[in-house]
Amino acid sequence: MTRQPGPREGVVLGDPHVITFDGLGYTFNGKGEFCLVSSADRELSVQARTEEVKLKNGTLATRLSSVAMEEKASDVMEVRLAEGQLQVLKNQKVLPFTEQRWMDLQGVFVFAPGLQNVTVIFLSGVGVEVRLHQGFMAAAVLLPTQFTNHTQGLLGWMNSEPSDDLLTQRGEIISSADATPEEIFTFGAGWNISKESSLFTYDSKVPLG
């Protein structure tokens, strides 16, 4: 009996450390809004916003501050860091999770058991889990196997081959085996998204960078 492969996970955490769907790990300290994963033919977009922060020891770091996502005609969901806890927005409006822990919305299900953990699940089975730990957000994106060979962005090209995960927006592959920090930064910066394609909320509480 052949065992069917399960969902693949890509992760962003800390000062952002990235682990692609194929298991390649790298650090990208860019500040702004970036494509975590997109799939044009599957109509999926998951985006990350990062910001600069000063640590207790005075050093500067970059951290994940918000994740926004949509699939096909779903509601646009955003999970962001707000006053030391996670805040959930649907179509740029804050959702209150005081009365209930879950919401069944347009094309998407949201589960928020607490202010430190939010899970978003789309109809295709795509899942995005956002956690908050010691002031830093971490996001894990789980993709079903039908997304194999249909992804691009900071979380790589999902095809069980980590060596080609540094795939640029222009379709060029930077060899991960000998990529310099400068090449990795250039790769990451190339996945910066324009304000026109951004899914994020712009309001007085969120700096525009």
From TrEMBL:
Coiled coil: none annotated. It comes from the Eukaryota. InterPro entries: Epithelial_Barrier/Signaling, VWF_type-D. Residues 8-199 form the VWFD domain. PROSITE patterns: VWFD. This is VWFD domain-containing protein. It comes from Zoarces viviparus.
